[in-house]
Design goal:
With about 425 residues, the protein is α/β, with parallel strands linked by helices. About 45% of the residues lie in helices and about 15% in strands. Strand 3 and strand 4 form a beta hairpin. Helix 1 packs across helix 2. The longest helix has 17 residues. The radius of gyration is 23 Å and the shape is globular.
Length: about 425
């Protein structure tokens, strides 16, 4: 409860009291009120045999294992992230995947088929959940619970109960475990408990890490048993499929019409974003337009005074479906993050999407970015400006060898490959 109160105060600081009350209501509606949706319950009870038969048909399908994604990361969020991509590609590789929804983002009363072997499911519907797990227990194929290391919803007791019921655990260690990532003043005990248990249970828990620093942490504390490195990746075709006839809003059209080079970024505007770096770029290069797309993750954006610069434009979040249309107009793509424990343990998903877009990339000196030859790494604010200038020249001259390198490194980091790493790990022990 202390964590939730702290998070509420931080939200008020960032969004104001009215927006916070609205968000808290949505959370309460998803977390608690949706559990007393009696009409959904009645529907399940009245149509028990119908739903039972549907589940039987699904569970009698063609697959090698069952993977259940349990976490408060909805399916229909503006930016499609790792959970959705991994789930889609696991389903393509003979895994039957059930993805837990949140009613904040997903209008799914019971369950919904996304594609073969991939279903959204509402576990707040208690009669449905009971039916589901009763049937799952009878299946003799390998079964897994998969979740993020930053998840606050599953308790350690939940995990132990799943293990008792014959499930193995896929623990996705995807970020440095810090309060800033979770959005609280202190790291919730729930997250710490699961992390510490993961370090001791090498029999039932598989660990997937997304960055070298996270891998070092795991190896130093529990060894390399049942451990695999699978950083973030890209849906290559999605970022190649640009709609040339897409109708932009007036604010973006005005930016395009100015004919100035566009230096772009999309993603979270958070405490690890280097606002001073971008403000310095805007000051030193007034002939560049800087476009920021994404969400205000905390109050850092509002406190940065970044909007005081006339050549910096914040256009809010763009849905994943249309994001490539915007980013395709960037002349240079950037990841201007501060260098700290969080960013040194981060695999920036957007890095690989930038590659697929075929755009020159400039980042700060993050360890996971240094691995790629196509990425220009800036050690300080002056070099950042110099490399943006250089990237614009590369873009203007369309340096063939550089753009081939971008494409090659994108193709080396597709989500298909990242999911296959997970499958290869768990398959060894089945």
């Amino acid at each position: 409860m202390k964590d939730k109160i702290n998070k509420a105060f931080l939200m008020i600081k960032k969004d104001g009291i009215f927006a916070t009350v609205k968000k808290i209501y949505k959370y309460i509606k998803w977390k608690y009120l949706s559990r007393v949706d009696f009409m959904s319950y009645i529907n399940i009870y009245l149509n028990y045999h119908k739903y039972s038969k549907i589940f039987d048909n699904i569970l009698n399908g063609n697959y090698d294992r069952i993977i259940i994604w349990r976490s408060s990361f909805g399916w229909n969020v503006p930016l499609f992230q790792r959970p959705q991509h991994i789930s889609k590609n696991l389903a393509d590789n003979r895994c039957l995947v059930f993805y837990e929804i949140t009613t904040i983002t997903d209008d799914v009363k019971n369950f919904k088929k996304i594609k073969d072997n991939l279903y959204l499911i509402n576990f707040n519907n208690i009669p449905l959940r009971k039916m589901f797990f009763k049937k799952i227990k009878l299946i003799k194929k390998p079964k897994y619970i998969q979740f993020y290391s930053t998840d606050c919803t599953l308790s350690l007791g939940d995990l132990k109960n799943y293990i008792t019921d014959g499930f193995k655990i896929i623990y996705e260690y995807i970020d440095d475990l810090s309060p800033e990532i979770v959005g609280t003043k202190e790291l919730p005990a729930n997250i710490k408990d699961k992390y510490e248990y993961m370090l001791t249970d090498t029999e039932n828990i598989f660990v997937i890490v997304t960055a070298d620093e996270l891998q070092k942490d795991v190896v130093s504390k529990r060894g390399s048993k049942k451990l695999a490195f699978s950083c973030n990746g890209v849906d290559y075709e999605h970022f190649k499929n640009i709609n040339d006839k897409f109708e932009f809003e007036d604010s973006f059209i005005n930016i395009l019409n100015s004919k100035k080079p566009i230096i772009g970024y999309y993603g979270a505007l958070a405490s690890w974003f280097d606002y001073e770096l971008i403000k310095n770029l805007a000051k030193e290069r007034p002939n560049y337009n800087i476009v920021l797309l994404g969400i205000k993750y905390d109050d850092s954006f509002n406190n940065s005074s970044i909007t005081e610069f006339s050549n910096i434009y914040f256009l809010g979040p763009k849905n994943y479906d249309i994001l490539p249309n915007y980013a395709s107009h960037f002349d240079v793509c950037t990841i201007p993050f501060l260098i700290n424990d969080i960013t040194q343990a981060t695999s920036p998903l957007k890095l690989f999407e930038y590659m697929a877009l075929g755009k020159p990339i400039v980042t700060t000196a993050m360890k996971e970015c240094k691995k790629y030859k196509s990425v220009m790494i800036a050690k300080d604010k002056n070099e950042f400006i110099q490399l943006v200038d250089k990237a614009l020249i590369l873009n203007k001259e369309h340096n063939v060898s550089y753009f081939n390198l971008l494409n090659d490194e994108a193709l080396e980091n597709t989500w298909e490959q990242k999911a296959k790493i997970i499958i290869d790990l768990i398959e060894k022990y089945e």
